[in-house]
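Take the subject:
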Amino acid sequence: MNYGKIIHILGVLLQVEGLLMSLPLLVAILYRESCWLHLGIVMVGALGIGTLLRLKKNKRDRIHAKEGFVITALSWILLSIVGAMPFWISREIPNFIDAFFESASGFTTTGASILTNVEGMSHGLLFWRSLTHWIGGMGVLVFILAVLPSDADDMYLMKAESPGPSVEKMLPKVRQTAMILYGIYLGLTVLNILLLLIFGMPAFDSFCLAFGAAGTGGFGVKNDSIASYSTSCQIIITIFMFLFGVNFKLYFLIVFRKFKDILKCEEIMWYAIIYGAAVTLVVIGIIHDVGDFGTALKEGAFQVSSIMTTTGYATTDFNLWGSMPKAVLVMVMFIGACAGSTGGGVKVSRCILWFKQVKSELSHFLHPRSVKKIRLEGKAVEQETLRTSNVFLMAYVLVFVFSLLIISFDGFDLETSFTAVAATQNNIGPGLGVVGPTGSYAAFSGISKLVMIFDMIAGRLELFPMLILFAPSTWSRK
């Protein structure tokens, strides 16, 4: 284990987080709020400790798979702990576990909240809360790879932090790939902000909600989430949530004018098909209650986009919908967005692979001597990719069941407990029952909140970086 390299990168992480905290600090100063002092204290502390950690000398610079997973897991835990400090020391969230929950929910782009009165928070901390979505959306380690030169083989960091069954370098250098990805991410975010401003949304709200849509996070700045904004703004957010749920490889191909390769993007095609089918079913299920097709289409398209991309914004209390549309939302809650996007869930590409494996197995029963390769986007899928996807499913189910068992001790109904775990492990935010779009996670016990914090970070990192921390062999120097 290369402990020197781990400590060095954690130091860089703290410095980056400290620098980013200067943005909400400026917002707090602009609004003349006292939280600027608390943000300043944490910022200076993060920069100072980060500088000390970077003094650790590295005997070797190379990162192997084990270091990549450990660095990624520890980075996100540390990121969330430090991110919680301004909430806690300002006493706007007086309980540290609650502050840790809110921070982890922000960075993992979950959007689950313990707050019951969002509008009662200061602008500075609301901005920090939303900024954590944007930071976590593309990944802070990807950001570090984009802005800092390195001679190390950092592909393991990108693989460990990026969502999906497989991650590849789009350009020969990892840093070049990271820079292109962040350029696209920033460009789409700026476009979202500008459109919201043009259609009348206040500047502060535009930045915060665009950060949430970009990171597919879901923290709003109003108690009713998105419901009180104009229809035009809701439609814009619907579109951008969908766009940020797309595999960023598509935008890369557009930037480099590889239009022929776009036609081979099978996952994106199925992403659109599943989205369209889900919207259709939800519209059928709610049209009788809302009264007209236009309203049903707007609410259905928004809510499916929000839940499938695991953003978590809401324009209505879908907790009041009938069983069928709620069942559709729960299903897309698990499917999630595309691999290589900022969205969560198990990912569309994995669902495609599992479906094709079942189809292949059925074909093998009928024709035992036939040998067929499973193909995705025109390429034969390696057996290693299929194996890791299947192992992911087993690990996913085990973590889900274990989490549900612990949380059930809090005594909530099954709908609340089940969707609370689903919403945190899939990085969605709102669930059903007590944790619906008008509810919060405040009533859960401290133990349950810690379990859900683990679920949020594990879900964002595709489980294995967090699970590997519990393997004794991980910490061996051999």
User: Anything to note?
Assistant: The chain has 21 helices and two strands. Residues 65-89 form the longest helix (25 residues). Strands lie at 375-376, 379-380. Residues 80 and 104 are 5 Å apart (CA to CA).
